[in-house]
Amino acid sequence: MDFKEAITATPSLKNAYKNGLQALGNYSNKVKPTDTKKCEGSVDIDAAVNQIYPNDSRWDYAMGYDGTTYFIEVHSAETSQVTPVLKKFRWLKDFLVTDAPELNKQQKKRFYWISSGGNNILRGSPQARQLAQSGITLDRQLNL
Q1: What angle do CA 130, 135, 138 make, to 5 degrees?
Q2: How many C-beta atoms surround the C-beta of residue 13 within 10 A?
Q3: Are 85 and 113 in contact (CB under 8 A)?
Q4: Which among 87, 44, 64, 89 is positioned nearest to 142, based on CA atoms?
Q5: pLDDT tens digits, residue range 4-41?
Q6: Domain of life here (predicted)?
């Protein structure tokens, strides 16, 4: 099942599917695909499930590119924000299991925290290690 099929098989996300990087809106400039033809679409998870989970810390986006699903959180990269982003990550993992099993079945999944500004989390810091151990890559943009 490809990215679009997995999204459309998810009731809370099916109406939020967008072509290319459209779902990322103003943040689409944070993702740099080498071949736009390999973009399989995107979805604004946060906006799509806002009514269902209004009080939860929700992950931002998902996009498909060349057979891989990228989950993207655009957030300020401060050490004080590691805990809130990890909370969103835990929410995403639970959401994938309970609400989006087809999306969860995607074989290749990557998790990215893209800084909305500069990156103030030092490499080798306890916070950077915490992110790495959780499987989240922190960067200024996602180069595909």
Answers
A1: 75
A2: 23
A3: yes
A4: 64
A5: 999 999 999 999 999 999 999 999 999 999 998 999 99
A6: Bacteria
State both tokens at 58: 């929700």
Residue 110 CA to residue 59 CA, distance in Å, equals 13
CB contact at 8 A, 71 and 106? no
Rounded CA-CA distance 28/118 in Å is: 17
pLDDT digits (tens, 9 = 90+) for 57-110: 999 999 999 999 999 999 888 888 889 999 999 999 999 999 999 999 988 999
CA 134, chain centre distance (Å): 14
Separation of alpha carbons 104 and 64, rounded Å: 13
Cα–Cα distance between 57 and 111 in angstroms, integer?
Answer: 16
